[in-house]
Structure formats: C-alpha cells, structure tokens
C-alpha cells in the first residue's frame, strides 16, 4: 500500500534526525533503500534536511514556535529534538511553518563556484541548484515567490513543486518560470541566454514585456538573444545528455573541432590549450574530465595521431613531425 504524503514526511523527518545523529552501516543501507523505493522520498528528505539546516543556523527559533511544538523538559533546542520531542508529524508540521516564516524574512543569499568547480546546493524548499564552473546565483525566497538571479555562468535547477510560490530564474532581462521541473539556464559572455529543459515545462518571457510567455517542454532548448525574440527548438535527447555532462565533472564532445573544444576547456581551467591552426578543424568525439585540459590534450593526441607538448600553464597540440 502506498504511503500518504503525511507518512512520507514523517519518514523523511525521522531519517533526517537519525542521519544527524549518525547512521550505522546497516541504517545507511536501509536509508538508501528507502530513498529509491518511492520518487517522493528524495524530495521529502531534501525538505526535511533543508529545515534542519535552517533551524541550526537561526537564533531564537524556539521562542517563535514554542506554541506549536510539543513541550520538552530540557533545553537548549537542538536539530534532533525538533523531530523527537513528541510526535514526528507535529514536529515536521512545525518545521514547515517555521520554514515559511523564514521565507518571509529571507535575506538574499549568494552562491558561487570557482573555475573548474561544480557545486550542488540544497535550497530552502527542497529544490536543488547545481552550479557549473565560474557561476554565481542570488537566491531570495518570500511567502509569494522563489526568486533566483543567475549573475553569471550556468546552473541546473531541480524544482520542488509548490504552485503557491512560483520558482523564477532571472538571467539578464529573461525570466524563466517553472513548477516541478528540471532545467538549466546559461548566461555566458558573447552568447544569448540559453535554457535547456530536461523535464517538465518552463515559461519564458522578458521582464518588461506584456506578451504571453513562451512555453517550452522537455527535450527542448530556448534561446533568448538580447536583441531578438525568444525562440524554442527541440533538441535530441543524446545532445541534451552531452550538454549536461558537466553535472558529473565531464565534457562530452560529438564531432567537436579541436578549436571549439579548446575554447570550452578555457571555461574550466587556467591551463591554456593551444591548437595549431593547421589542425584546428580536426574533430573529436568522447567524454573527458572537465578540469583536466592536459589529460584531454593527451587523449586527443592519441586518438588523432597528433603531438602534444606541455609547457607550464600551456599545452600545445600540433602535427607530428614527418
């Protein structure tokens, strides 16, 4: 029999508190099994853990919610007591109310990655943001909306459903609105804003426009140039997967020229790949570690019978001598 939403929340709260205490190897195996048993479990657990993190960081929260939580005999309050101080259901409900209160008072939070770094961030509502290399986002949650501003770079968002609070990402003058979906937004120098929709549906519009938003479904790419209309085109699933390889610290090329591959690697490392113009249009296919340009160059040399020379912060690829 399928568990109710309340039961799932109770189970998630229990696991969050237990993990806070520390799991035995057997408990960790049971937790992983529970996560995989129902697609609702991951989102519920993320919400519970997000609440715990914010409870830990906040001051004076016991005073604000003492009328909601079951009474306890000892103090001070701790993360685990929130979930074990009486009914788990009551504790989780109280935490949910507290989470809404935090949204109302939320300050803008900034998250960033350095060159070659990928970072995953659990947001207050259970959504997850994953930042690609050299990327920055600003996050502000209120009781009316979940607002994200992409300051630079690229980010993937796995959005927790909440129809009452729209999830909106702003990149320059483009707004991307989503409810319960997975998509990336990229804003790179000398390129238009691009949105890849992995799952679900998003709506795009200009911040100052009155026209109806453009709806874009899964396996599609939306392009928003600063001087032209937003347009959407379907994208092959295999290409979508390649474009998202950075999630796992990889760059995936399919008949990519060496010149283009070198340019892509410049986003991930300060080690410069210099390609001889005579071979710049040679193409390469494969998956490579995103922050290892030397490893890529050596692999490309082996695959294409080229010579590679490493000199400090520079790696050269050129034809072999006759």
Rounded mean pLDDT is: 82
Given the structure, what is the number of helices?
Answer: 9
Q: Could you say how many structural domains there are in total?
A: 3
CATH architecture of the largest domain: Sandwich
Shape: globular
Domain FecR N-terminal: 10-49
Transmembrane segments: 82-103
Domain FecR protein: 111-203
InterPro entries: FecR, FecR_N, Ferrdict_sens_TM
Please give a handful of descriptors for the protein shown.
single chain; Jelly Rolls; 13-stranded mixed beta sheet; 33% helix; Phage tail protein beta-alpha-beta fold; 3 domains; 322 residues
Give a structural overview.
- The structure is a single chain.
- This protein is of the alpha+beta class and 322 residues long.
- 33% of the residues lie in helices and 32% in strands.
- It has helices at 5-21, 25-37, 39-57, 61-65, 79-84, 88-105, 237-243, 258-265, 293-304; strands at residues 109-112, 119-122, 128-131, 136-141, 146-158, 167-171, 174-178, 182-187, 193-199, 201-206, 214-217, 220-224, 231-234, 250-257, 272-275, 283-289, 306-311, 314-319.
- The strands form three sheets. Strands 1, 2, 3, 4, 5, 6, 7, 8, 9, 10, 11, 12 and 13 form a 13-stranded mixed sheet that branches. Strands 15-18-17 form a three-stranded mixed sheet.
- Strand 6 and strand 7 form a beta hairpin.
- The N and C termini lie far apart (72 Å).
- Residues 53-104 have low confidence and may be disordered.
- Keywords: Membrane, Transmembrane, Transmembrane helix.
- It comes from Rhizomicrobium electricum.
- Pfam families: DUF4880 (PF16220), FecR (PF04773).
């Amino acid at each position: 029999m399928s568990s109710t939403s309340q039961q799932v929340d109770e189970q998630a709260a229990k696991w969050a508190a237990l993990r806070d205490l520390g799991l035995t190897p057997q408990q960790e195996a049971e937790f992983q099994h529970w996560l995989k048993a129902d697609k609702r479990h991951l989102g519920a657990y993320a919400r519970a853990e997000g609440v715990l993190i914010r409870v830990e960081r906040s001051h004076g929260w016991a005073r604000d919610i003492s009328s909601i939580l079951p009474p306890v005999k000892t103090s001070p309050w701790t993360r685990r007591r929130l979930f074990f101080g009486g009914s788990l259901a009551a504790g989780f409900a109280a935490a949910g109310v507290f989470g809404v209160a935090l949204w109302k008072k939320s300050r803008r939070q900034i998250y960033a990655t350095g060159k070659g770094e990928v970072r995953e961030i659990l947001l207050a509502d259970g959504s997850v943001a994953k930042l690609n290399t050299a990327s920055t986002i600003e996050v502000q949650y209120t009781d009316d909306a979940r607002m994200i501003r992409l300051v630079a770079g690229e980010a993937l968002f796995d959005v927790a459903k909440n129809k009452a609070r729209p999830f909106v990402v702003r990149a320059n003058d483009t707004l991307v609105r989503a409810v319960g979906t997975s998509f990336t937004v990229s804003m790179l120098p000398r390129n238009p804003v691009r949105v890849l929709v992995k799952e679900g549906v998003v709506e795009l519009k200009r911040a100052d426009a009155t026209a109806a938003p453009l709806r874009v479904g899964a396996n599609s790419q939306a392009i928003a140039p600063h001087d032209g209309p937003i347009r959407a085109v379907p994208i092959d699933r295999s290409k979508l997967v390649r474009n998202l390889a950075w999630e796992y610290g990889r760059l995936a090329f399919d008949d990519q020229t060496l010149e283009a591959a070198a340019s892509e690697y410049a986003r991930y490392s300060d080690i410069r790949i210099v390609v001889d113009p005579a071979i710049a249009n040679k193409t390469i296919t494969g998956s490579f570690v995103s922050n290892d340009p030397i490893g890529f160059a050596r692999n490309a040399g082996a695959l294409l019978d080229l010579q590679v020379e490493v000199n400090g912060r520079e790696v050269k690829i050129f034809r072999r001598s006759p």
